[in-house]
Design brief:
Immunoglobulin-like, binds dinuclear copper ion, CcO_II-like_C, five-stranded mixed beta sheet, copper, 1 helix, Ba3_CcO_II_C
């Protein structure tokens, strides 16, 4: 079979770009730790309290084992509910020691929100009716801003919080 020169060039280009994009996906998945969030777990967005994780008293940070934490968050327009401090004010900062494993569990009461902990590999889409889970090891210390990265309405830019790794 005879292949025209341009056809060969085009074949090589096609194969090379396939390999290149597979390498990029592999790098993101295995080196940078980018993975899809959880599996399809459903919840009634009108009644998130029916799920134990999202009852008001269970929101925010809980240490479940030595160095292992769970953070439950309810997103709504335009706030992240991280539970309350002992004095009754809304929690805005989650504090965990460096090296700890943190499972973030987020759901939405209304529209699609985002949940990104900028500077870490935590980046989820939060859809009403679903529970978004992502576990991450907090390797670096510092203050990381939690931002909503899905446009959710007029107060979109007001949705933020902080994860402090000490
Ligand atoms: Cu919530 Cu944008």
């Amino acid at each position: 079979m005879h292949l025209h020169k341009y056809e060969k060039v085009w074949l090589v280009f096609g194969l090379a770009s396939l390999v290149l994009f597979l390498l990029i996906i592999g790098f993101a998945a295995f080196w940078k730790g980018t993975h899809p969030q959880s599996h399809i777990e459903t919840i009634d967005p009108q009644n998130v309290e029916a799920n134990e994780s999202f009852q008001p008293d269970n929101l925010g940070l809980t240490e479940v084992a030595d160095g292992k934490y769970v953070v439950n968050i309810v997103a709504s327009a335009f706030n992240y509910d991280f539970g309350k401090e002992e004095d009754g004010t809304a929690t805005k900062t989650i504090r965990v020691p460096k090296g700890s494993t943190v499972l973030f569990q987020v759901t939405s009461k209304d529209v699609v929100h985002g949940f990104q902990v900028a500077g870490t590999n935590v980046n989820m889409m939060v859809e009403p009716g679903h529970i978004s889970r992502f576990e991450s090891v907090m390797k670096n210390d510092g203050e990381f801003t939690v931002v909503c990265n899905e446009y959710c309405g007029i107060g979109h830019h007001l949705m933020f919080g902080t994860v402090e790794v000490y």
